Amino acid sequence: MTPITEYGNFLQALIALVAIANPLAAVPAFLALLPGADAAAKRQAARRVALAVFAILTGAVLMGRFVLAMFSISFAAFRVGGGLVVTLTGLEMLRSGQGEAADEATVAHAAEHLIVPVAMPLIAGPGTIITAMTMAARAADAGRPSLMVIAVAAVTAVVWLVLVLSGSVQERIGARGQVIIARFMGLVLVAIGAQLVLTGIADFFGLAGGATPS
Length: 214
What we know:
- By secondary structure, the chain is mostly helical.
- It has one domain (about 30-205).
- About 80% of the residues lie in helices and about 0% in strands.
- It is built from 8 helices and no strands.
- It has helices spanning about 5-20, 25-30, 40-70, 75-95, 105-110, 115-125, 125-140, 145-205.
- Helix 3 crosses helix 8.
- The chain starts with a helix and ends in a 10-residue tail after the last helix.
- The relative contact order is 0.22.
- The model is unreliable at about 100-105 (pLDDT under 50).
């Protein structure tokens, strides 16, 4: 394989992963789950989410298919499970106030829960993981599986940058805006979760399904 071809495959994998992961879509949930957090706390939370995304996608690239096969888990079941997690998180956000001033302990507690659902399944969701596995299989056939690990690292950098810059948005919208965003995002998460569940059920029964969210 020529260097130009390898470079093209790398760009294709990078663009595909960034597009389906869509870190911009996770920004409202990221902000809503960190009410009252200062800039330093948001940077630390962004780093935590980015590292979690890197670990999840790298694991998918290196041994994702093996793990699913070991536990006899289908992609359809994986989608349904992820959808239920997103739905429950959305319902919790709809019930909570969000946006109130928070102390350091509350912020730290919220940051601990960013891995689910922000890192997974909003960013590194079933679609992203399946895409990473597919690209990894193709890269392995070409003799360059390391290309996918590099692509995952680049995606992780994009995720971190998007989440760090999201802090400036939170400073402009105020407490009332945060409440509105939290409630709206809760509703959106419920809808995303329902779509994941329905897509997983459709896949399981071999029915025609809609587009799969990340």
